[in-house]
Amino acid sequence: MPARFRDIFTESFGDEKFIVTNSIPVNLGNDVFCRGLTVYPFKEWLAIEERVDKGEGLTPTELNSIKRLIIAPATECVADRQGRVLLPPNLRSYAALERDIVFVGMRKKIEIWDLEAWNKVFGQAEKDIPSGTLASAELGL
What we know:
The structure is a single chain. It contains six helices and seven strands. The strands form two sheets. A five-stranded antiparallel beta sheet has the order 5-1-4-7-6. Strand 2 and strand 3 form a beta hairpin. It is an alpha+beta fold and about 140 residues long. The relative contact order is 0.19. The protein has one domain (about 5-140): Chemotaxis protein chec. The model has no long low-confidence stretch (mean pLDDT about 90).
């Protein structure tokens, strides 16, 4: 994990522990999905678990999918002094992480992507961004 991300997590959330798990797959259409990983500060993860336990606004099928895909594979990690984290093989395999890896800061979480997958995800985000909408204007974008 890049040192600046690790430092921000530690300073912002007051904990060196974090959780790494599967990201929600990004649907590119035609049953093509890109998969990555998400890193959460430990305290933020605990809050996510509480919200999932409540399951508000989710059908039983959606809730079970979240539990199977996101909650179950979650792994507690701590970076060593050089910022290295050993990701479990099941998580590396899910995200197809091999050589070129991208870390994307997302405020209260960090996403980890294979570079090729990230380029596709970023391209999809360009298509999906709500440009010229009231919602984007209210965000100041």
